[in-house]
């Protein structure tokens, strides 16, 4: 039996803005096996990024529990788990504009490892994502698809077990989308990563093992084929 990599129980997230309270996630439960690739769908504003932030330990839930790789977050250091277990690909790449692709990939681990140790791993990762001849380019000298590849390499610098991708193909043309999707599928098949992808794209969802949708704060299963 496969082990569970992500377990979420009765998760609730409420934002307070001035006098207003916005209930975004309402009692969500979800279990994702190790090595599974899950599409997270839902209309704009439904809470996909919010849920990814909670799974990535970037934000804390209002109530409910999250277990990653069988670690109960209440008893383990969140920072430690985030640093070791989770890689995050942000919606708008968030590369540092003044630094090369190579340095951008190293950045998250600079406080932890020496530059020479990181450079070797970062070069291997840039090679892995097909950018071996772009390592000294600045983000402004890269195409959108290449910037996304750098962002994926950066998310892998600490060899995470879980990869969370927020709209990884949202700003890309169809061909570039397909190549990024192929890369993400390779990471699942060859490295055994557990992957959650927030997406609006039924084609991306169709490549995933499981599809779930957030609607009105609740999670339900979803069939991408019925939407085409
Ligand atoms: N820090 C915050 N404070 C108050 N409200 C917030 C905050 N962050 C998100 N929200 C609200 O929570 C809801 C869910 O936002 P979220 O970004 O998770 O949606 P999403 O499904 O990822 O949207 P999109 O597909 O457009 O990226 C939105 O109504 C948003 O306005």
UniProtKB/TrEMBL annotation:
Does the record's keyword annotation contain Nucleotide-binding?
Answer: yes
Domain ABC transporter residue range list: 6-228
Q: Enumerate the InterPro entries for this protein.
A: AAA+_ATPase (IPR003593), ABC_transporter-like_ATP-bd (IPR003439), ABC_transporter-like_CS (IPR017871), ABC_transpr_LolD-like (IPR015854), MacB-like_ATP-bd (IPR017911), P-loop_NTPase (IPR027417)
Keywords for this protein: ATP-binding, Nucleotide-binding, Transport
Give the superkingdom in one word.
Answer: Bacteria
Which Pfam family, an example, fits this chain? ABC_tran
Database matches in SUPFAM superfamilies: P-loop containing nucleoside triphosphate hydrolases (SSF52540)
The Swiss-Prot or TrEMBL record annotates one GO molecular function as: ATP binding
Belongs to which family? Belongs to the ABC transporter superfamily.
Name this polypeptide is given: ABC transporter ATP-binding protein
């Amino acid at each position: 039996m496969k082990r569970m990599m992500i377990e979420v129980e009765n998760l609730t997230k409420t934002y307070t803005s001035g006098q207003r309270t916005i209930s975004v996630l309402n009692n969500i439960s979800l279990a994702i096996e190790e090595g599974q690739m899950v599409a997270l769908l839902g209309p704009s504003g439904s809470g996909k990024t919010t849920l990814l932030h909670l799974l990535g330990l970037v934000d804390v839930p209002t109530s409910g529990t999250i277990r990653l790789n069988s670690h109960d977050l209440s008893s383990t250091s969140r920072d430690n788990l985030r640093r070791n277990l989770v890689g995050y690909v942000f919606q708008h790449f968030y590369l540092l504009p003044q630094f090369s692709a190579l340095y951008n990939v190293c950045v998250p681990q600079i406080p932890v490892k020496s530059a020479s140790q990181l450079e070797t791993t970062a070069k291997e990762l840039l090679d892995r994502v097909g950018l071996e001849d772009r390592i000294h380019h600045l983000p402004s000298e890269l195409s959108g698809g290449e910037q996304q590849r750098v962002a994926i390499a950066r998310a892998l610098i600490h060899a995470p077990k879980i990869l969370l991708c927020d709209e990884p193909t949202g700003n890309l043309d169809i061909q570039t989308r397909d190549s990024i999707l192929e890369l993400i599928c390779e990471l699942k098949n060859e490295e055994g990563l557990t992957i959650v992808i927030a997406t609006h794209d039924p084609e991306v969802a169709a490549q995933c093992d499981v599809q779930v949708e957030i609607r009105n704060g609740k999670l339900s299963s979803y069939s991408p084929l019925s939407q085409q």
